[in-house]
Amino acid sequence: VGSEIKIDKEFVTGEVAPNIFAGFLEHLGRCIYGGIVDYGNTKLTNDKGFRTDVAEAIKELDMPVMRWPGGNFVSSYHWLDGVGPVDQRPKRPELAWLNTESNEFGTDEFMQWCEYMGTEPYLCLNMGTGTLDEALAWVEYCNGDKDTYYANLRRKNGREKPYNVKYWGVGNEVWGPWQVGQMTKENYALKAAQWAKAIKLLDPTVKLVACGCNGVDEWDQHVVGETFTTHDFYSIHLYTTSQDHYKNVFQPAGAETAIQVTSKLAELAKITNMTNKKFLVPLTEEQKKKEYKIVFDEWNVWDPIRADGEHGAEQQYDFSDGLAVASWLNVFIRQAKYLEMTNIAQCVNVIAPIMTNKDGLFKQTTYYPFQLFSKYFKNGQSLNLSVKSPIYKGDVGDFIGLEWVKYVDTSLALLDVSAVYQPAEKAYYVAVVNRSEDEDAETKISIADAADSLNVTEWAYYHENIRAINTFEKPNEVVPKESKVTISNNSTYKFPKHSFTLLKIQE
Ligand code: AHR
Q1: Please, which pLDDT band fits residue 405 given cuts at 50, 70 and 90?
Q2: Are residues 396 and 447 in the same domain?
Q3: Which residue's CA is the nearest one to ligand 1's atom 1?
Q4: Residues with catalytic annotation?
């Protein structure tokens, strides 16, 4: 036996927040127009123009929160352009992806779509061309319940009740040279604190998400501490990719390091606030207990060269990409205690698990791992496992500066594992990605204090060709297969080469 997984439900590291399976929609390419809505395509839409087939496919991913409207798009988006009578809304040049924005889909349409989907909105504020006044007006439009101008504008536009949007992102990637309104970390920290103060004066119930970089950048080293007292959560973004299978499936390890580093920066921020005299206002008891959790509000496998944003970022995912997404999700389960939310970027057509045309859709290879994790890991107790596995010794970085992954992360195990215990079901869910391209992994599975004979449901996600894809013509080329087996505790299970396996083990 080469590998071993030891599981003990007493060793809980944290709860898996349902929001770990949240999504993201941006006005980019065919994500909104042609994805979420398809005005004029009466065959596949409801009376509001919402694509019902897309809604169905997203519902199966069970995303509790949806981030909108960007992304880079938001940094030149004026929300007032997108409310009121549709035929009077201005068409605008859009500076992130160099398109024209029709503004047919705006705040009220997004809110209606969220209600139709049963998902919670998460809005990102424009810190590029947008002003604090404009941001405050948007919060008032969405959440105001008094007799005030923007709350009344919402009423005039047909919505009496406030939308009560809880999550607000304070800027998007404002550190990036591609961003309209790029800032230095010092400028951002100052501005973000002032914005937070004003927004919370207007609506103290909102939760504000500060704009982070990749979690390990100098930006993060500065901004985590500077926003610790003013914001509720800290956002980070990371995309991974490579046409080399090993680099592809190991780069999500960079996200694991990023989460760990950011969470330590948050601890350091608390310690600094409690021990240094530089802050005039001492921490409140609540702030002393605050964890400053992470909102990983953009993550995915994305090759911006093969699927560039100006051409709609439509990436065809292969089976290796599906395994990489499973490894991303393993990271989130293992690090669940630090995470308030994560948002796969994005949901439809744009670097997405779902692709549409005028006649329907197909689900990409990345769809199924997300669906399985979302269905079975939510609210579970993430377990600290002991895993013995062969270690990958090759190179993993060739993209967006992830060279450091191999040198700072010692856990490049070929067998990538996470597990939760679901007390209500008295069941363990164990997710295993065998990242080896050519070796099956004979693996001993031991569960502490379990019966000798265990009933197991297995979802096996395997294709002999790591380059296999789903398409409109062959939508079911790569799909998981479900079966039931009985295994003995402490016996050996075979995880095929380059595969993802989800096991439900009944206690
Ligand atoms: O998701 C695509 C883009 O990636 C987003 O607009 C931006 O925030 C990131 O760079």
Answers
A1: confident
A2: yes
A3: 345
A4: 173, 298
Does 415 share its domain with 322?
no
Output the residue whose Cα is nearest ligand 1's atom 2. 71
Q: How far, in Å, from the CA of 74 to the mean position of ligand 1? A: 10
Atom of ligand 1 at shortest range from CA of 73: 6
pLDDT tens by residue, 14-54: 999 999 999 999 999 999 999 999 999 999 999 999 999 99
**In the chain, how long is the greatest CA-to-CA distance?**
70
What is the spatial distance between Cα 102 and Cα 428, in angstroms, rounded to a whole number? 48
One domain, residues 148 and 288 = yes
Q: Residue 173: what pLDDT?
A: 98
> What confidence tens digit (pLDDT) does each residue in 259-299 have?
999 999 999 999 988 876 665 567 888 888 999 999 999 99
- Specify if 5 maps to a domain: no
Among 209, 237, 296, 297, name the best residue to mutate to test ligand 1's pocket (greatest count of ligand atoms within 8 A of Cβ).
237
Question: Do 278 and 294 fall into the same domain?
Answer: yes
Instruction: Give the structural domain span for 219.
Output: 17-378
If asked whether residues 368 and 264 sit together in one domain, one would say yes
Q: Please tell me the distance from the alpha carbon of residue 196 to that of residue 169, in angstroms, as a whole number.
A: 10
307 and 441 in a single domain? The answer is no
Protein residue with its CA nearest to atom 4 in ligand 1: 71
What ipTM was reported for this prediction? Answer: 0.99
pLDDT class of 76 with cuts at 50, 70, 90: very high
Specify the ligand 1 atom closest to the Cα of 176: 10
For residue 431, give every residue at least 6 positions away whose Cβ sits within 8 Å of its Cβ, in sequence order, or none: 326, 329, 330, 333, 372, 373, 377, 417, 418, 419, 500, 501, 502
> Which helix (H) or strand (E) element contains residue 134?
helix 132-143
Domain closes at, from 330, 362, 378: 378
Work out the end-to-end distance of the chain between its first and last CA atoms, rounded to an integer number of angstroms: 24
Give me the pLDDT at residue 361, please.
98
Calculate how far, in angstroms, residue 238's C-alpha sits from the geometric centre of ligand 1: 10
Average per-residue pLDDT in the chain? 95
- pLDDT at 397 exceeding the cut of 90: no
- Domain for residue 4, yes or no? no
**Same domain for 363 and 428?**
no
Quick one: which of 73, 30, 22 has its CA closest to 349?
Answer: 30
- Rg of the chain over Cα atoms, rounded to whole angstroms, equals 23
Q: Which atom of ligand 1 is nearest to the CA of 351?
A: 1
Q: For ligand 1, atom 5, name the residue with the nearest CA.
A: 71
Would you say how long the chain is, in residues? Answer: 507
Ligand 1 centroid to Cα of residue 31, in Å, is 12
Q: What is the mean pLDDT of residues 438-462?
A: 97
State whether 230 and 288 are in the same domain: yes
**Site residues for ligand 1, CB cut-off 6 Å:** 26, 70-72, 172-173, 298, 345-346
